[in-house]
Amino acid sequence: MGAGIRDKVAIVGMGCSKFGERWDVGAEELLVEAYEEARKDAGITTGEIQAAWLSTALEDFNVGKSALPLSMTLRLPNIPVTRVENYCASGTEAFRGAAYAVAAGACDIALAAGVEKLKDTGYGGLPNRTRGINSDMIRPNNTAPGAFAQLASAYRAKHNVKKEDLKKAIGMVSEKSHANGALNPKAHLQKAVSLDTILSAPMIAEPLGLFDCCGVSDGAAAAIITTPEIARSMGKHNLITVKSLQLALSNGLEAEHNSWDGSYFHTTRIAAKRAYEEAGITRPREEISLFEVHDCFSITELVTVEDLFISPEGGAIKDYMDGFYNADGKVPCQIDGGLKCFGHPVGASGLRMLYEMYLQLLGRAGKRQLKDPRIGMTHNLGGMPNANVSSVAIIGRLD
Amino acid sequence: MVGITSFGAYIPKLRLNRKSIAEANAWGNAGLKGMAKGQRAMCNWDEDSVTMAVAAAKDALRGVKSSAISRVFLATTTAPFLDRQNAGIVSAALHLGHEIASMDITSSQKAGTTGLIAALDIAKSGEDNILFVASEKRRTKAASSQEMQYGHGAAALLVGADKPVAKLLASHSRTVDFIDHYRAEGRDFDYQWEERWIRDEGYMKIVPPAIDAALKKAKLKADAITHFVMPTVFPAVTRSIGKAAGLADKALRDTLGDNCGDTGVAHPLLMLVDALQDAKAGDKIMVAGFGNGCDVLIFEATKELEKLKGPRGVKGGLANGREEKNYNKFLTFNDLITKEFGIRAEADMPTPMSALYRKNDMVLGLIGGICTACKTPQYPKSDVCVNPECNKTHTQEDYTFADKAAHVMSWTADYLTFTLDPPGHYGMVEFDAGGRFMADFTDVAVGDLDVGMPVEMVFRVKSVDERRGFIRYFWKAVPRTA
Fold this sequence. Notes:
CATH topology of the largest domain in chain B: Peroxisomal Thiolase, Chain A, domain 1
Shape of chain B: globular
Number of strands of chain A: 11
Number of strands of chain B: 22
CATH architecture of the largest domain in chain B: 3-Layer(aba) Sandwich
Strand content of chain A: 15-25%
Number of domains of chain A: 2
Helix content of chain B: 25-40%
Mean pLDDT of chain A: 96
CATH class of the largest domain in chain A: Alpha Beta
Low-confidence stretches of chain B: none
Structural class of chain B: alpha+beta
Strand order of the largest sheet of chain B: 5-4-6-7-1-8-13-12-11
CATH topology of the largest domain in chain A: Peroxisomal Thiolase, Chain A, domain 1
Oligomer: heterodimer
Distance between the termini of chain B: 33 Å
Number of domains of chain B: 2
Mean pLDDT of chain B: 96
Strand order of the largest sheet of chain A: 3-2-4-7-1-8-11-10-9
Radius of gyration of chain B: 23 Å
CATH architecture of the largest domain in chain A: 3-Layer(aba) Sandwich
CATH superfamily of the largest domain in chain A: Thiolase/Chalcone synthase
Structural class of chain A: alpha/beta
Largest sheet of chain A: 9 strands, mixed
Order of helices and strands of chain A: EHEHEHEHHHHEEEHEHHHEHHHHEE
CATH class of the largest domain in chain B: Alpha Beta
CATH superfamily of the largest domain in chain B: Thiolase/Chalcone synthase
Radius of gyration of chain A: 20 Å
């Protein structure tokens, strides 16, 4: 592994649109909403941005192909702008592109923006998407909940967990996130939901009920990145720097080789190990102040906290029962409400997670503010358990 | 001496309770009440004459090398494609290779017996291992008598001279343009004439002379026949024909009306398979097929019959049923009502013919790869081995997954996805000897599946491209039956 990106770039501005069923606006307005907050936070003009990355994943349903939608919408000064798409890790990919460009010295100030306009399809859930010719000929016509629900069957079998016990534990995952989201004015869903309501909701994909699934929302988020030196020259104090950015992709092992048992994310374990090494973290359960995982479904979160080595393997259920991940727990998870309450406008999600880490690290999180957090981690998981893109980003205070 | 060297059958797992037809429709057709006994076999939404043919053929080919098959015939009046060889789809699914002849036989209810006689004639010239399959999924109007009487099913016979389990003694064919029903080009349903006329002028006048002629050719007396296979939707008609031809009452085979129904072109062969499962060496089996004339074949069971243990046949098929009491499901599966499926069902998925042809083995044959370096089976076959300890390039040979034992590794029941039979069941299917892929499960009800459950692979309709009229076939997993 190379020297890594630890403390080579600083975040000087972030913005996030209100997430939700934004019937009144399209992708363009969402981008402007997020970008203007980030630009003002950074205290720069658009003319100072030297390169930009746009993340959108399901382009056929919203913004269209290429990075032109970002360049045109923000009237960027004819700078290099690149569109990235890597399933649900797309937002983090835009951030990675911008961070690497700054770290490489290719530019001084870079923008990462992500957006998705999902609520123009006419039906619930993520839009149907093309998957490639071969996949269409042989893969089931699965939905996202159906793909992730399978984790539950394999997790139960591996850890000898009763059906009702796992159902209750994943219910507590959602209960906790809804409690957090109730305090977040930018969240799509801002109501606390009782465990009874969660457990008795209609089934979507066995064993995931309605409240085990994240919402489907429109939204955008943006980050402005520069070097710590330039950030200081801009008058910034209490710098938030990137500690690590890691990505691990499946290579077919989970989907085609019998060595994977279906109960965990092979890629997330690899990305997490690399991210901790890059960030210099050796005891994540003690050193991570708070984190956001890709809680597209409650079972995804429960499995992921183990794959990020915060809970021991097979120990997540106990940690949720103990309130370890609650807002007042040892390592709060989804303090902003998570995908559960924000929904998952795919291109925006990774940046939305970083936005909350950034606010918390700067002490700007209002009613949700945790006491003196120093290291925040975000995680995205795109695709499905047997073939996916897993990203881990760690940011923290520089001092 | 040519004859039948192996046999197989397929009856769809779903059995529609006939009472459900009567309960829904007797308000307008009180006559249905009198027919509301037992069950009829019904295809799941993902079954058609081609998929049933593949299932029956697989049953007949247990223990037979697919490369040994010389020719494949498919008899049906309900072929999914009018111009794409349906027997060719069967051949691709069974991975019979390209160096074989194939033919669809159609346009009459006696296509099953007429085609079988042709196959036996070819065998007489010395060709062995001819696969003959008859399969039928007749679409009927709601609330019709035929909806009650018909069933879906398929039968497969292997024809040749190599140790036949039943040798052909004689056959006779008659061709009469007798129109008891017809179905014209572009029409969805049959047009029927009066049943009493069909009985008196059709069955009773056309079949007995054919029986006599066949008996003469075989130099047999009528009372020598131990099994008389004669499909009709009224057991009384079968009895009358038997009586008119001088056959013993006890020789009349059950027409499988109770829990299968008349499977059209497939039915004479389905009943023949049923008879073969009961027959002993020396038994004489007469098979009659009626439709715009009549075919009669006479077989004699041989000692080889006792050695043939593999096929599940009709007995196994009948035993592996699940009662369906929801008549609306039957209407939905057979496209007999206009139903709302939501916008999600609109997803457009064209099939590029060039890609399908390139991946023909992968899609239709479920052929994957096995790495010659590390022996890891994998699906799909690829240029680079998936085993992380190997990852060698260009080491894979063809590997057949369709007949390999497998089990459920993970599963779900998805209420969100579009399927004609929600919830959609799918999950990771892992092969015991190595290899896995995410597969649809079919013929399962909520609560059936669990991790570790043994499954087997079946050839089914994956989805239908309504806009372009194309049927996409692939393999799915079903719980393994004994």
